[in-house]
Amino acid sequence: MWCWTASAGGWVALPNGAERGRARYADEQHRPGLGREPDLARLRRRRALCYLPKIYAILFSALYIPLLTLIFGLIFRGVAFEFRATASKKTPWNRAFFVGSLVAVFTQGLTLGGYLSGTKVVDGHFGGGALDWLNPFSLMVGFALIAGYMLLGSTYLILKTTARCRSGPIGRHTGQLWRWRDS
């Protein structure tokens, strides 16, 4: 088993290495004081890493479509950003960058919502369908993530602009907001 041999270290690759690794491991376990604790923590981490391939296999099978869409959105965004630099007309590439960013953020929310809503596992394998991640909760998380990133970006712009630049648009919009509320 890979998990058991990993505790023996790199010795398992050598002839009679497993025995030498087990002997070394047994010697390490009987050291007094604090020297033993890092070894136990290391072994716990290695045991935890043994489960990661199974977890990744289940989650990637369950979230294959939103993860690929996320990757394609990020690629489209990067391509639009690069072509915008050399284009004579920048408006189409600005729109392409916006669409790529929107797709990436929305599918990031779909992925998070699909992960949080759970995955059907049967006998240690993914047991659901291709669209199990698509539910009202994941859609809500996707739209909420768009709104959250918009709030984050607008807050950043407000903090980084000067008072003179900031007073015009913010003052106009807050004035409109108060007028709308009073009517």
What do these coordinates show?
The chain is 76% helix and 2% strand. The chain folds into two domains: 1-55, no CATH class; 63-166. The protein is built from seven helices and two strands. By secondary structure, the protein is mostly helical. The protein has a two-stranded antiparallel ribbon with strand order 1-2. It starts with a helix and ends with a helix. A hairpin with a 2-residue loop joins strand 1 (121-122) and strand 2.
Number of helices: 7
Count of distinct structural domains:
2
Strand order of the largest sheet: 1-2
Indicate the mean pLDDT: 77
Q: Please tell me how large the radius of gyration is.
A: 26 Å
Strand content: under 5%
Distance between the termini: 72 Å
Taken from the alpha-carbon principal axes, the silhouette is: elongated
Share of helix, binned: over 70%
- Sheet with most strands: 2 strands, antiparallel
Order of helices and strands: HHHHHEEHH
pLDDT < 50 stretches: 1-13
Strand tally is 2
Structural class: mainly alpha
Quaternary structure: single chain
